[in-house]
Amino acid sequence: MSEARAGPTVYSIPPHRSFADAFVAGILATDRSPLDLARGRILVPTNRAARTIRDAFVRAAGEGTLLPRLVPIGDPELDERLGSALDPIDATPVPPAIAPTERIFLLSGILARQPGTSTLTALREAADLATALDQLIIEGVSPRELHALASEEKELEAHWALLLAKLDVIFTAWPALLAERGLIDLADRRNRLLDRLSERWKAEPPPGFTIAAGITTTAPAVAGLLGTVARLAEGQVVLPALARVREMPEEEWDALDVDPDSPTGASPATLSHPQYHLKLLLERMKVGRGEVRDWHRQGLAAASSQRSRVILNAMTGARFTDKWESLSPADRTLGDKVRHAVFPTPVTEAMGIAIALREALEEPGRTASLVTPDRGLAARVSAILRRWGVDADDSAGRPLGVTPPGILCQLLLETVEDDFGPISLMALLKHPLVGGERRASGEWLRAVRRLDLALRGPRPGGGLDAIAAQLAERDPRERDRDAQRRERDQAAFALVRPDIERACRTLSEATTVASLAASLRDALDGLTNGQAFAGAAGRELAAMIEELEFGGGGATLAIAPDERLQVWRTLMAGRSVRPPYGGHPRIRILGLLEARLVQSDLMILAGLNEGSWPRTQSSDPWLAPRLRRRLGLPGLDYRIGLAGHDFMSALGAPEVLLTRAERDERSPTIASRFWLRLEAMVGETAWAKRRDTRLERLAHAIDAPATVDPVDRPMPVVPVDKRPDRLSVTSVEKLRADPFAFYAGSILNLRSLDKLDSRSIAAWQGSRVHKWLEEWLREGSDPATLEAGLDRLLARDEIHPMLRALWGGRLRETCKFLRSALEQDRAAGRKPALAEAHGEARIGGVRVHGYADRIDRCPNGGVAIVDYKTGGSPTRKALDQQFALQLGLLGLIAARGGFADAGTDPVALEYWKFAKKGQDFGERMSATKDDIADYLAQTEAMMTRLAEDYLTGNEPFVAKLNPAFAPYGDYDQLMRLEEWYGRA
Predict the structure, then answer these.
(1) Is this prediction's pTM over 0.85?
(2) Residue 755 class from Cβ within 10 Å (0-12 exposed, 13-18 middle, 19+ buried)?
(3) pLDDT value of residue 718
(4) 898: Cβ contacts below 8 Å, ≥ 6 apart
(5) Residue-level pLDDT at 301
(6) What is the C-alpha to C-alpha distance for residues 519 and 521, in angstroms, rounded to an integer?
(7) How many Cα atoms sit within 13 Å of 40 on the Cβ side?
C-alpha cells in the first residue's frame, strides 16, 4: 500500500500543448513497467475524455502497451467502473439511482396535481425542475433549505413567494416518493460514491498510481476527491490551461474573489472569467496556485509557449484590459498560425470551413478538427464534406427528432391529431420507411403518387371515410377517361388505407405515456415491417420506447388527445443519436464538450457569434439569481466562463482558424466577445493582416459558374403534325396572349398542381359557385330558391369555418344581385334553359369546344350565353382588342348548332361578375358594344388567323408575346422568364 502525503501534487498543461498527448507522453516517460501501468488508474471527467486519452496512448505507445484503468467519474455506473475500490465487506451498499425517465414522470405527476397544469406543461416544467434539483444536490444544498429561505425573505416579490411555496410542496413529496421506492437521485448517488471513495483512499491508499486528468468540475464531492488524490503518495491531479503566476499576475488572480464560504457571491464579470472555475476548484481542493507545477512533457502537437501568454492576456478581466497598451508586441500577437475569416452567411461559412478541412487532408498525416456549439453549422459542414467523399460525422450526434424514425413518429401522431388531413397524411405515406415490401416493388409509391394528385385542392372532411367519399364523387363533366382515373384513385386509396387505419387506430386510443409508447411501437412495426428500429437511430428509438413503456411512471401519467404530439416531442428532446465509429480518421467535428482535452494540427473554431459562442444564458424558471446567491449555487454567467476556457484551450493548437458569419437566417449578428477581445488586443491593423481572404473568395467561387450565359426568349417551333387540331375556348385566349403558355399546356400537357389542403383557392371557390348555380337551374331556376342552395353549399364539411364566415358573407350579397337580375330577365321573358352546357364546332379549320355556364332562351327565339366570373374578369380593353375570346367563341359554337337543344341564334353574350362594385356585389357586362353579328365575325377572323399561324402553320410559340394580357405565371419558370425578360 502507498502512503498518503500532506503536500498536494497538482500539475497544469498550458493551452499551447495538446492536453491528451502531453499527458500521455508524461505518463510513458516515467520508469513504470507495463504491469505498473496496468495497476494504475486514471480518473477522467467523461466517457469521451476516456476515449481521447486512450487514443493518445495508442498514438504514443507505438508497439503497444498495457493501459491503466480509465474511470469516467461522470459515468452513471461509477461504482462498477471503480470495481472493488468501493466494495469493503462491511460497507452499506449505496442505494440505486432512479432512472432519468422515471424521475421525469414522477416529477411531472407531482406538478400535474397543481390546478390548471396540463401533462405537457408538467413535463416541460419537470425537466427544468430536475436540473434545479441536480444543481442543489451537486452543490451540497439541501432542498429543504428553501423552506427556511422563504421564511427569512420578507421582501420577496409575490410571484417568487408563490414559486417557493410550490417548490416546498414538491420537495416535501419528492423525498417521500424516492424513499417509497428505495431509490435516490443520480446526482446524490454520485456524490455519495465520490465521498465514500475519498474517505476510503484517505484511510487505505490504493495500490499503484492514481491520476485525475482534465477534471475541472467544481462540485464539492469532486473537489474533495481531487484533493485526496493530489495528496496520495502516487497521486496526481493534472488540470488543463490553468494560469500560472508568471502568466497571470496575483492581482488579477485575486480579483476573481473566490470566497470558500460564499462562492457565488462573485460578480457576473468574475463568474464569466475563464479561470474562475479553476480557482474555485483549487480553493475547494485546498490547494494554492503556487503549489501547481508545469507538466513535464509537451506531446506530439504543440504551439509556441508564447501562445499561452497571449491567450491569457486576451482573456484577462475587464478591469485589467488597460494593460494591453503596455504589452510588448510578442505578448499581444497570436502569430501567423492563427487566422480568421468572416463570411456573409452561415451557408458560405460552412463552405469555407469544409474547404479548409479538405485542404488539410492534402498533407499526409495532418489532422483537423471543427469545434462549434452551432449544431446547424456542423451539419452543413458534414454534408458538404460528403460531396467530396469525406465522411466526418458530428460527434455530438443528431437529435432523435430529426432522424427518419423520429420524424416518422411525429408524422403518425400529427396525422391522427389532424384527423387525416391531406398534408399530414401524404407526408406519412411518402416517408421512406413506410410501405415495407410493397415500397421495394414500387407498388406502394405508385399508389401514393396517384393519391397525391387526387387529393390536390380542397381539404376533405375529417377522417378516412371523407377521403374515400371525395375520391368517389363524380364530376358532371367527367368523361370516360376521367371515370377510369377516378377508379384508379379509389384503388390506390384502397391499397394504403388498411395499413394506415390499423397503425392509427391504437394511437387514437392512447391515454397515458406508456400506452402511447406501446401504440407507437406497434404502429411503427406494422407500417415499416420492423425497419423503423434498424440502425443507430432505430435502436435509440426502441430504447426510448422501452423506457417509456416499462420504465415506471408512464402508466399513470395521463395525456389529453390534443397533447400527444407535443408530449412526444418533449420526450424526444435531448435524446441524440451518436454516429457509429468509422468516420474519417483525420477529420473530427466536435461540440464544446466533446472538444475538451482534444487538439489537432488545425483547429477551426466556428460560429463565433454572441448567442452561439458563448450561448445566451436562459433564465432559470425555478431559481432566480437572488435565490441562487442565497443558496450558494453558481450564477448563470458561470457557463460563460466554461465556454471561455474551452475557447482558450482550442486556441492553443499549432494552427487555428476562427470563423463567423455576419448574419444568420434572421438578422445581422454580433461577433463573440472572445473574438472582439482578440481583435481589440491585437489591434485593428494586425488583426486585418491575419484575415484569410483567400478562403473567403474560395467559398464564394466554388459554386459560382465560370460564365453567366442567360437564355434568350424561348420560341419553340413544333412540327405541324404535332400541333393540336382540337382545343378549348379557354386555351385559345392563352394562344392569343402567350403562345408559349399554350404550347406548354396543350402540346406538352403540363399543368400546374393545386396545393394540398388549399382551403380557399380561387378555382375551387369558382367551381363550387358554378355547382351551386347549376343545381339551382336543374331544380327549376326559381330566383327565390337561390338562398337555399347557398345554405347547402356553405354547410359542407370541406369548407373551413373562417372561409365560411368571410366568403359566405360575400356570396349572400351576391345572391341579392342574382335574384334581382333574374327577376328582371324573367319579367322581360328571358328564362334560364341550360347549365354547364358543352358545345363543339369547327372554327377556322379546327375543332373548338367549351362549356357555357348558362344558356338563356330569349322571347324572340334567340339565346343568351352567360359566363360567371367569381374572380378576375376581362376588362373592356381586353374585349375590344380581342384578347378575351371565350364568349365570342361560345357564341360561334352556338351559331353553328354546337349546343344541342339550345338554339342557333345568339343574341346576348354576357359576363356576370360576382366581385364587389362600389358598395354592392355583382355586375353584368356585355362582351359586345356593337352589333353581335359583327362581334362574332371579328372573333371568327381572329380564330382563323390564330389557327393558320399556330395550328396549321409553322409560327413559333413565342413566350409572353402580349405580357399585358398574360398575367398567369404557371409557366414562368419553364420559360426562364427572369433571365430574358427586359432584354428581349
Answers:
(1) no
(2) exposed
(3) 93
(4) 839, 840, 841, 849
(5) 59
(6) 5
(7) 24
